[in-house]
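--- STAGE predict ---
source: upstream dedup step, 1 unique chain passed
mode: sequence only
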Amino acid sequence: MMNMPTVKLGVAAVSRDCFPKSLSASRRSNVVKACQEKGIEIYECPVTIENENEMLEAVEDLKKAGVNALVVYLGNFGPETAETLLAKKFGLPVMFAAAAEEFGDNLVDGRGDAYCGMLNASYNLGLRGIKAYIPEYPVGTPDEVADMIKEFVPVARTVLALNSLKIITFGPRPQDFLACNAPIARLYDLGVEIEENSELDLFASFNEHEGDQRIAGVVAEMEAELGDGNKMAGILPKLAQLEITLLDWAEAHKGSREYVAFANKCWPAFQTQFGCVPCYVNSRLTARGIPCACEVDIYGALSEFIGQCVSDDIVTLLDINNTVPSDIYLNDIKGKYDYALTDTFMGFHCGNTAAEKLSTRTMKYQLIMHRGLEPDKEPDITRGTLEGDIAPSDITFFRLQSTSDAKLRAYVAEGEVLPVPTRSFGGIGIFAIKEMGRFYRHVLIEGRYPHHGAVTFAHNGKALFNVFRYLGVEEIGFNQPKGMLYKTENPFA
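--- STAGE serialize ---
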């Protein structure tokens, strides 16, 4: 995927001066060897850190090597001040892990007490207000620590990306879509910049791109992607013009940032002025690593971008839209899949899901907008949706949101898209998440979340949870299993 950073890992060992320095250094080398055996590229800092001077030397060495994500490795108990200052001075994503003891016959000179030192490291990180990723069980053998490092990569990639992200919007939001409007102050806390523009700014730029020589080439790409689903070929030049407009805007407006995501107005005036719906363009930009959220959903775009960084794959943004009719459930789901009716729902949007994630792909028109804007006539200005059932897949449904009182909260739930026909329109799929009914009531409704959720096409719950924790999100909802009551759940129900 483009539009994301490449993580270059480094590991630096720390050593308390009353323990053998060689013990920490040799254990560090064993971790590097285990990483190499698992295909994990990692730079081994040659400085074993006992004090602040060596900490500064290590930071200089790591920066010179181009390391942008650091593993602070406690090969023994570790120096509390130097190891936490290392994280602070490094200034980029940091993980802490510690060495397990190795052999029962070497617990005198070969005992490192890193199990103990990890407690002090955590305490000192808290005292200094330093963020760090600490694995679920952060003490292990070289092989186990290598696995921990692998899980750190998506967290590090996301944090690096957010610190260089600009979200570009074209608004304002549509009327009666208050749910897509949230305080932007918390974006700055995350390191994200935002550029808010008028829909008129986009329209002016779009008109300037009329007749652009690149349009024919983009139309050819679209034709190849759509194949037999190219049912409305006449709208492709307008869509290509819009795609070029957005890409040029992103390049011209990145400023000091490296990565871009969009949150754009898409109705109702869009159709009458631009002469199309932007859904297919949104899908194509998202497929190339530039998430493009509908309805000026800024936190939807942010969530998509986070999901992309975590999964290293295409994402989408969907409405948590409608229930599954009981006849579909009884005929196609019950007895075939281990889900109750209330575990299922349909995730839908007009046509913004990438072609690669659909079972079939057809260029159509936006039915709901057509009813209001050009009833009783052949679709014209409402053309431009990419429609089809979403392909069966594991998924993670999630969202990071700022509340009305400007606090960050998030939810994460893993599930799947079932291989069951939807019999409906748009980009749509039948989603199944265990205990969705309770999750819907006691997380989504109780937490005042909007109807948009971001989707990754894999089980990425663990990584997303770790990312949100690293970012300082205190409230992270999830689909709790039976017997584990939500705070607001009636125990007598």
